[in-house]
Specification:
Shape: globular
CATH topology of the largest domain: Beta-lactamase
Oligomer: single chain
Distance between the termini: 66 Å
Number of strands: 20
Radius of gyration: 23 Å
CATH class of the largest domain: Alpha Beta
Largest sheet: 8 strands, antiparallel
Strand content: 15-25%
Number of helices: 12
Length: 475
């Protein structure tokens, strides 16, 4: 049996549930250890951990507001807001402050689609064009034999293009969902088309979720926010959540403003996303934690449906969630990245553990990762920890041949320079020290790994970036 307590502390509402076997003081100390125990993504072998404080890291990342919720023993053990909703203002982040979930909208939308499949309103493995009314997936050679299905759209294996969406600022006209799917003005994204044989490979595609959004609207005749409120949000108890786009008046006074990497507020405070299933959820970490717990405990979907959703397929993805680990270490997760907002959700299938971190900054992704590593250490997530690296002994004279400009794309380049005994990489105004793991493999303390490629004559020709992206040395 658990006792619920609500405390108002330091201008931020703190809500937690503590087991009767523990004490309020024990939980307070645990929270304090998390707040002062953030860890970097990379630790150097032989060097002691160097825990960091949340307050200091928020300042370092120019992130005005952070909100955190912890899942332990199958309940939201505690949730807390830090900082302010908007830089330069004084309204504190509380556990009821709503943030843009960005792509964490996708698993919530996926659950709504699966509930419709349970009712027989949708089918997992039939051609979505059979039930789409307002718009159809264009047929081509790639769809001649294999079709776009709900299962494939939810698992990013439908062969659909359009990776993600940048949203619309306050002075931009909003497209309809059909205009988004067709890529016609005022939509700012490309048409949603199949350019890979459906079912043949995994490729992350927000466009697939826009197809699912239109499909759900067409088969129910309801607006997407209404449909999601009726199917998922109410059922889980996500009372601080909405898919309203644009954000409704009653929600605006509770919303965090998004911030650029330099700490300035983005124009209009946030972007609007008509691509609601892909990126449109406004919510809190505590509500997302309730959603994760409902999946852990089979309280949202039927057991067979939950198993399908959380079974890894191509790319180690289930239906709407990334999957990692096996047995007790099996966990599901998703990140979120909208203009001015970053968020992360991690939850273990069997142990009743997990956490959600939401931020109102473009720098918040790195901060959220540091918070999660600190939480993992405190709560004993043995498989979720910073990578341990060994710094190799390399003659700094070798660095001279690596210096130069590496073109990632026509509008993006990485500049590498030698500064005394160190190698520095600079891109988009950010500087990173490259630490040697070998003579050609380097890493940063933020967890970025790169590799320099030489030709037969020993000349450096390329820089291989995370994800296998190759950047050609142009000078």
């Amino acid at each position: 049996m658990n006792s619920a307590r609500i405390i108002l502390a330091a201008g931020a509402l703190l809500v937690f549930h503590c087991a009767t076997t523990g004490s309020d003081a024990d939980l307070a100390r645990r929270i304090e250890r998390v707040e002062n125990g953030l860890l970097p993504p990379i630790v150097i072998k032989g060097q002691p951990d160097a825990p960091m404080s949340l307050r200091d890291r928020m300042a370092f990342y120019k992130t005005p507001g952070v909100s955190v919720a912890i899942i332990n023993n199958g309940v939201v053990e505690w949730a807390r807001g830090y900082g302010v909703r908007e830089g330069g203002a004084h309204d504190p982040v509380t556990v009821h402050t709503i943030f843009q979930a960005a792509s964490i909208s996708k698993p919530v939308a996926a659950a709504g689609a699966l509930l419709l499949a349970e009712r027989g309103t949708l089918e997992l493995d039939s051609d979505v064009n059979r039930k789409l009314i307002s718009w159809k997936v264009s047929e081509n050679e790639d769809t001649r034999e294999e079709k776009v299905t709900l299962r494939r759209a939810l698992s990013h294996t439908a062969g659909l293009a359009v990776h993600g969406y940048r949203g619309y600022s306050e002075d931009e006209s909003l497209p309809t969902l059909v205009q988004v799917l067709e890529g016609t003005k005022p939509a700012n994204s490309a048409p949603t088309r199949v350019d890979i044989v459906p079912g043949s490979q995994w490729r992350y595609a927000g466009g697939g979720y826009s197809v699912v959004q239109q499909l759900m609207i067409d088969v129910t005749g309801k607006s997407f926010p209404t449909l999601m409120r009726e199917t998922v949000l109410r059922k889980v108890g996500m009372s601080d959540s909405t898919f309203d786009q644009p954000l409704g008046g009653r929600w605006r006074g509770r919303a965090a403003a998004g911030h650029q990497s330099d700490g300035t507020v983005i124009k209009g405070k946030w972007h609007t996303y008509p691509e609601m299933a892909a990126a449109g959820l406004w919510t809190t970490p505590a509500d997302l934690a309730r959603f994760a717990i409902a999946l852990q405990q089979n309280r949202l979907l039927a057991p067979d449906t939950a198993r399908i959703m959380l079974t890894p397929g191509l790319g180690d993805w289930g239906l709407g969630l990334g999957m990692k680990g096996t047995g007790p270490a099996s966990r599901f997760s998703h990140g979120g990245s909208n203009e001015g907002f970053r968020a992360s959700l991690v939850a273990y299938r069997e142990s009743g553990q997990g956490a959600v971190v939401m931020t109102n900054s473009d720098n918040g992704g790195a901060l959220a990762q540091e918070i999660l590593f600190g939480i993992a250490k405190e709560y004993g997530w043995s498989d979720f920890a910073p990578k341990e690296k060994t710094i190799a002994t390399v003659d700094p004279g070798v660095y001279d041949i690596y210096a130069g400009v590496y073109e990632v794309s026509p509008n993006l380049a990485v500049t590498v320079t030698r500064e005394k005994q160190t190698l520095i990489a600079e891109a988009q105004g950010q500087r990173y020290e490259l630490l040697p793991e070998s003579e050609t493999n380097f890493f940063t303390l933020k967890g970025v790994e790169v590799r320099f490629v030489k030709d037969a004559a020993g000349e450096v020709t390329h820089l291989v970036l995370p994800g296998g992206t190759s950047a050609k040395k142009v000078r």
